[in-house]
Amino acid sequence: MAYINLSHVTVDIPIYNSQGRSLKKKVLGIATGGRVGLTESGKTIVRSLEDITFKVSPTERVGLIGHNGAGKSTLLRVLGRVYSPTSGSAIIEGKVGSLIGISLGIDQEATGLENIYLRAALLGIDKEVVEKELSELITFSGLGEFINMPVRTYSTGMHMRLAFAVSTMITPEILLMDEWLSVGDEDFKKKAEKRLNNLIDRSNILFLASHSRTLIERCCTTVVWLEHGKIKNIGSPKEVCREYFR
């Protein structure tokens, strides 16, 4: 069963070749994101998250809100096991799937069909699963004969439809999303939203970072408000959104 327990998680990101940066730039960093500071050895760091503590039980849908640079993406990377806490502990039980960077791993010179297998392999999806769902996947993408053409010949919309179709093949216990995915024309958006909702229903825990109050209140059961890398508030969508968006 999926479960998350973050206890006093802090993430410091080192900034190299920073000694020549002006005070003005450092102050700007403090104003828009995490706190800039120095380690005992004199290295510059940005504290992206500080003292993050919360637990998430199965079936919870957690919304992440906060200004740009507040730490939402860093927190998602901790949950995705991309970043390890500098201090504190992060217990993350369950298979994690991410819809962040859905075009990652797509080869422009390879065909759409070849990219389906490449992207699926990166996502840890078995070849047998891909072959079973291949026909449905190609139909859903609407690429037709273009599926056998190099991706470099695709329009932006075709590229995104391919990436979206493959990325939503995952069946994670913990699903991470940075904004709601909106791809293609109006007809495809309807199909995409249905597929996305099915994916969310299959997941056990959802984390959704978004600037949309409507989306957060519609999809989430709990909201975490981050400000300068710290938790400003955590509670029900109605309560936290009312305070944040006023």
Number of domains: 2
- Report the strand count: 10
Pattern of helices and strands:
EHEEEHEEHHHEHEHEEH
Residues in helix, %: 25-40%
Description:
Helix content is 36%, strand content 27%. With 246 residues, it is an alpha/beta fold. It has two domains: 130 residues, P-loop containing nucleotide triphosphate hydrolases (Rossmann fold); 92 residues, no CATH class. Strand 9 and strand 10 form a beta hairpin. Helix 3 packs across helix 5 and helix 4 packs antiparallel against helix 5. The mean pLDDT is 89.
Kindly list the characteristics that best describe this protein.
246 residues; alpha/beta; Rossmann fold; 2 domains; six-stranded mixed sheet; four-stranded antiparallel sheet; globular
